[in-house]
Amino acid sequence: MITMNTHVTRDEEVYHQNIDSELVMMSITSGRYYGVNPLGQEIWEQLKELRSLQEICNQIIQKYDVPQEDCQR
Question: For 15-35, what is each residue's pLDDT tens digit?
Fold first, then answer.
């Protein structure tokens, strides 16, 4: 079960590249490509190190002034 205390980090099977100020990611396992919005880019940056979901959420709340409940969703 995933909780706010769960620690997460980047998946080494996901390659990423900034292209024209957009983060593009590709899963080697599935072969799928993803375009990531600025908030997703920020989360990806935070995942360079092992972090709890609560730590990531706290950073988002501070920067974007969103309610805790919205961030946790």
Answer: 999 888 889 999 999 999 999
Give 1's Cβ-side CA count (13 Å radius). Answer: 2
Residue 60, token pair as written in the block: 């988002």
> In this structure, what token pair is assigned to residue 30?
């599935």
The neighbouring-strand residues paired with 27 are 14
For residue 54, is it left (φ>0), alpha (ψ between -120 and 50) or beta?
Answer: alpha
Q: What b/e readout covers 18-36, taking b as 16+ CB neighbours within 10 angstroms?
A: eeeeebebeeeeeeeeeeb
The length of the chain in residues reads 73
